[in-house]
Every structure is written in C-alpha cells, then in structure tokens.
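TA notes. Do not distribute before section.
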Amino acid sequence: MKNLIIILSLFFLSGCVDPFLLSYAGGNVIYNMQYWEHIDTKEKASLKTENDCFDKVTKNNPFSRDKYGQCLYEQGYRFRTNNLLYCFWYMPEKCKDYNKFR
C-alpha cells in the first residue's frame, strides 16, 4: 500500500496524471478553469450574458474571440482563471487573445 501511495504521488507531482483525469472529465474541467467576472460585483457572468455576447458577435460574422471579449468587457466583465496552468499549459492561445480583457 505504501508503494502505491508513493507511485501515485510521483505521478501527481510529475503531471502525468493530468491527461488521464481530463480524458474522463472531458473539456468541462478545462473550461471551468476560466470565467468572466464582473469588476464591481465579483460575480461570474451568467450563461445568458455569455450567450448574448456570442449571438451578438456571430450574428453575421464568424466567431472572433476579440469581439466576444470586447462585448463582455464593455458590460463590466473581466477575464479570469482559477488555475495557473490554464494559461501556460492548457489554453495559451485563448489567454493570449483575452489578456487585454483582464
């Protein structure tokens, strides 16, 4: 039992377990690491707010993270992450696009 705990600890520390966990949880684990937070109330953007901006951006144009982020930013929301690895490992391209909306 002690050996099993040591082996599992090594996997967690090395990061080898991450892909294993994400394969079962799907994209929700990664998606939930980022959110839009209102600058005054500190509340997360509701699904309706996010969908309204998505609909506004994609009305007659292809989706653009820049326009989507600008829409939420103008409503008082700021891009946030709750995991340091999100921007460095999982979604660096998304963070690069949304960094100006922090």
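Switch to the second chain here.
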Amino acid sequence: MSALDGLEVRRTTTAQQLADGLSERIMAGAFGPGDRLRESAIAAELGVARNTVREAVRILELTGLVRYEVNRGAVVIAPTPEKVEALYTARERLETAAVARTPRPEQLAAITKAFDQLVDAAATGDKNRIVDRDLAFHQAIVALLDSSRLDEFFAGLTQELRFYLTVLSKSETPEDVVAEHEAILDAIRLGDRDRAVAEVRAHVGVSVERLKALLAARP
C-alpha cells in the first residue's frame, strides 16, 4: 500500500476559481478602486460558502489587487503614484538587469516568439489578450537572468501589473504597444545591451507617466 493511496490531485480549488473570476471582474471595471468586496453578499449571490469567498479574497490580497481596511474589510486597491513608482521600479530593475546580459539562442527565440504573439494579439484589438501577451514578452525577458526564483518573483508581480496594464490599455493604441516592444527586441537582437537597457527604461518610464496622468485625471 502506497502512502499516496487515496490522494486526489485537483487542478484548482473552488476558492481559486472564484479568485480568478473576481480578478477578471476587477480588470473589467465591474469593481472600481476602493469598492468593497462584501463576502456575505458574494457568497449569497453565487451560492458558495462564505469561507470559500474569504479564501478567494485572501488570494486576491496576495496578488495585490485587494487589501483589507479597518472597519471596511476587503476593498479593491486604489492606485496611487507611490504604488505605481514602487511596482514599476521593481520591474525596471529586473528587466534592465536581464537585457544587460547576452541571450542564448533559445532565449532570443523565446523573446521573439513572445513578440510575434503580441503582434498577433494587437491585430485583434482584444485588450485582455494584448495585456496577456505583453506580460508574456516581459516574462521572457526576465528569463534572461537564468534564475527560477526571479522568474517566480516576476510572475508574482504580474497580477498587479495586469491591473495597471489594463488601466493603461484605455489610453494607448495597440500600435503604440507593438512599437515600444519592437524597439526593445531590436536592441536585444543587435546585441546592443546599452540600447536595450535604455529602451526598457524608456518603456517603463512612459508607462509610469501615463499611469500618473490617468490617476491625476480621476475625479
């Protein structure tokens, strides 16, 4: 008899499925910054246990999309210039360190493939798909660091980055997105590491400034 007899492996829990669904609603704007996620109301409407909702909300808290406030409970994050700066500084540090390295052929191929998929997504005009491919391109860049721990760290940032990229998608065209990423890829292909670092910094800097402008325009 094996010590693993009777153990069932499930692909995802109900709480994770719920967290994914709530995340999609937040990205789509169904829940705005500062909105409360009322656990009892969500549980009643969806017919799930309140403990399941609480676990889902905790998952969202770990991704940075939700935070707990005293006397209010779980609320959708309200972006601030400080939060934007902190997140994008972490992203810039990782990616500039990555493009300062010379990619192996298979790494360059992975980045090129990710860019081609971004171009395909841009052609559809589907903002969610564009954001997905955008993140995949940058994940491929971070992979140049040859560190599974850093890969995991960046993957952990992607949920919060997805939130901000979704916000940005309302103010930039698919053509803008492709052009900025193509400049980074061209520098990497040419082996011009200084230019690649500069392009990443410029790309991140433009994103931060656009986000700050959007935040400043909020009522």
